[in-house]
Amino acid sequence: MGKALDGVRVLDMTHVQSGPSATQLLAWLGADVIKVEMPRRGDITRTQLRDKSNVDSLYFTMLNANKRSVTLNIKSAQGQEALSRLIASADVLVENFGPGVLERQGFGYEAVRAINPRLIYATIKGFADASGIEPKAYETIAQAMGGAMSTTGWRSGPPTASSAQIGDTGTGIHCVAGILAALYQRTLTGEGQLVEVAMQDCVMNLLRVKLRDQQRLA
């Protein structure tokens, strides 16, 4: 028996941790994950916290092992054409750019849907559109804005972040759940859809038992 996602192609247009943790989980489940990176620099974590020069950091490899990689300059006409071809052959696209970045490059959900109506387009942002908050987010911001830091540490001390990556990898796991549900629904409808995940929302979901305590214990 093969893996559950054998034959599923994923375009990984993510960086740092929340997106790469999601696409790596899809790769572990058998998907063919193609990581799309910018020329020359690539994912910024390739050079972060590394022990040796001119090699990828452990931070990068632990989140991006089991993937293929390609560099594309999507600001160029040639790069946009190449990305369009990749989109046409993909089942899933995952991105965690800042708000509006891919839209400005001509690859927002509606534009991509016109290329491939069967594509699952998953987007990870720091905050939901309804929140009205647009800044980028990372682990400690998500923990703070989701309320988790207020429940950790000592009463007499400052809010404290958890060392478990509930903001980044926790969001990645939520994203995978949405992608798998969308892939299953596609077997019934034949159509793809947009999957939106917000880091603040995911932290609050992981915090829901503490929210119960606050309601019960004032």
Quick structural gist:
This protein has helices at 18-28, 58-64, 77-88, 101-104, 109-115, 139-145, 169-189, 199-206, 208-217, and strands at 9-13, 32-37, 68-71, 92-95, 120-125, 194-198. With 218 residues, it is α/β, with parallel strands linked by helices. The protein has a six-stranded parallel sheet, sandwiched between helices.
The gyration radius over C-alpha positions equals 18 Å
Low-confidence stretches: none
Could you give a short account of the major beta sheet?
A: 6 strands, parallel
Report mean pLDDT, rounded to a whole number: 93
Report the strand count. 6
C-alpha geometry: globular
The helix content is 25-40%
What would your notes on this structure say?
The protein has nine helices and six strands; from the N terminus they run βαβαβαβααβααβαα. It has helices at residues 18-28, 58-64, 77-88, 101-104, 109-115, 139-145, 169-189, 199-206, 208-217; strands at 9-13, 32-37, 68-71, 92-95, 120-125, 194-198. A six-stranded parallel β-sheet has the order 3-2-1-4-5-6, with helices on both faces. It is globular, with a radius of gyration of 18 Å. The mean pLDDT is 93.
Q: Mind sketching the topology for me?
A:
Blueprint: E1 9-13, H1 18-28, E2 32-37, H2 58-64, E3 68-71, H3 77-88, E4 92-95, H4 101-104, H5 109-115, E5 120-125, H6 139-145, H7 169-189, E6 194-198, H8 199-206, H9 208-217
Parallel strand pairs: 1-2, 1-4, 2-3, 4-5, 5-6
Helix pairs in contact: 1-7
Structure characteristics:
single chain; 218 residues; alpha/beta; six-stranded parallel β-sheet; 9 helices; 14% strand
